[in-house]
Amino acid sequence: MSISSSTTPNALTEKVQEQSLWLATLTSEVNKVIVGQANMVEKLLIGLLSGGHILLEGVPGLAKTLAIKTLSSAIHAKFSRIQFTPDLLPADVVGTMIYNLAQNEFLPKKGPVFANFVLADEINRAPEKVQSALLEAMAEKQVTIGDQTFKLDEPFLVLATQNPIEQGGTYPLPEAQADRFLLKVLISYPGKEDERLIIRQHQLSEQQKIQVVLKPEQLLEARQTVKSIYMDEKVEDYILNLIFATRQPESVKLEKLKPLLSFGASPRGSIGLTMAAKAHAFLQQRAYVTPDDVRAVVAEVLRHRIGLSYEAQAETILPDDVIREILNAVPMP
């Protein structure tokens, strides 16, 4: 992979630094409301920059929904929220055909998925058929209603939240649906001092107002710059070695992982890891990717793309445990 012949390394660096200026403003706006979740905010920005959908998982009350709403409020774009419930139908998500008596014909009625930012709140509260209603929109940026196909406006991003699978009344995401998410971010509890700030912030008579600081055109322009960020062939090989280690752990002398894995990351994992690493480099105001950029996002990109066997689940082994073993086994360039 190389830099475009029309863009020199110095010019690309200047472009990255110039375009990343709005990141500080955007982060500042989000931090007005979201306290103690720096990792979540960073991963949301990576999703924005790489055009990848994001799945946030954590117990209730950790500001998952609030973070997504706050981020959307700071960007001048159309926002839509879908509350996933057990009785939700696919037509409630994408839309359906409605009979128009005056015109004596069926006309398409677009659903809430027709927006720039779609919050799929508690996505695992609805059955698999409803979760899968988002597949076409997430993969192809289009929706088919009846015999008509509609293109979705750019930028288009699905930001989903879910409670841990072991909680009652939830349905696990189908593998094909989970693979459409660029990142799966696990949200943990804030520290004591951060929670003190949360308590004090909640007692304020007036809640912080979020200012619109970013236009969709700026975001789309930044995405093009992210794609142009230089990745050396050695870093590309590092990504491929990590991905192939999830499929063939014996190739990196991790035979012990073989019975623990039912399947490894798909080529979407390779693409996702590349784009997320480039977005991370952009956040660091660099025009090139380092192995540390890859390691900074590898868990979020791969944890939902690795299938664990029954043996691994019986031993309470988590995808992150497997990823950690692979990172230790695959040599860095």
Automatic annotation (TrEMBL):
Domain ChlI/MoxR AAA lid as annotated: residue spans: 259-326
InterPro entries: ATPase_AAA-3, CbbQ/NirQ/NorQ/GpvN, ChlI/MoxR_AAA_lid, P-loop_NTPase
Leader peptide range in chain numbering: none
Domain called ATPase AAA-3: residue spans: 53-183
A Gene Ontology molecular function term of the record: ATP binding
Coiled coil: none
Keyword presence, Membrane: no
Pfam families assigned: AAA_3, AAA_lid_2
Entry keywords, A to Z: ATP-binding, Nucleotide-binding
Family stated for the protein in its record: Belongs to the MoxR family.
Name this protein carries in UniProt: MoxR family ATPase
Source organism per UniProt: Xanthocytophaga flava
Top-level taxonomy: Bacteria, Pseudomonadati, Bacteroidota, Cytophagia, Cytophagales
